[in-house]
Design brief:
By secondary structure, this protein is an all-beta fold. 0% of the residues lie in helices and 50% in strands. A hairpin with a 5-residue loop joins strand 6 and strand 7.
Length: 169
């Protein structure tokens, strides 16, 4: 989780591929670097994964990002999250504690038909620390029922970090 990675090609998921399971967790957070080098991840279907306690679910490329994700495009993503009590969903990160820079996302992100507290955003569901810079979201973001925190870029942001996303498009 602390290594540096980069893409050398686009990653294209085919119709019928199994759903992508989010990488890392609350107890094993991504703390490395991922440089997409301008390449894209296309047509990925992301399912939610439950926490070990089972009261929360996380959906995104990363369940927990505490590192740096940059120069990455995630196009035509489908995120479908469900949870027992709390649900966090974002195309790049369910929960962001790190930095997201020069990223583009598009697709659909939904917290589905459950009576829960849901944090749903185009790029990340909940942002507790870190920054999102020069990034764009063209995602359709939906939440249904329960207590909802929903946004085009971030579903819920800690007030301390509000300025960290203000210069986004």
């Amino acid at each position: 989780p602390t290594a540096s990675y980069y893409l050398t090609n686009d990653i294209v998921f085919a119709e019928g591929d199994e759903a992508f399971v989010p990488l890392f967790s609350a107890t094993n957070q991504f703390k490395g670097d991922l440089d997409g080098k301008g390449f894209s991840i296309r047509n990925v279907k992301i399912s939610s994964v439950k926490s070990t306690a089972g009261s929360s679910s996380y959906a995104g490329i990363f369940a927990y990002n505490a590192g740096t994700v940059k120069n990455l495009n995630v196009e035509n993503a489908t995120v479908e999250a469900q949870g027992n009590k709390y649900s966090y969903a974002g195309i790049i990160a369910a929960i962001n504690l790190g930095n997201i820079e020069n990223c583009y996302v598009s697709g659909t992100n939904r917290n589905m038909d459950v009576e829960i507290t849901a944090y749903t955003g185009g790029i990340c569901g909940q942002m507790l620390k870190g920054e999102i810079k020069n990034s764009v979201s063209y995602a359709n973001v939906y939440s249904s029922r329960g207590e909802q925190y929903t946004g085009g870029i971030v579903g819920y942001i800690n007030r301390v970090n509000y300025a960290s996303i203000c210069n986004n498009k």
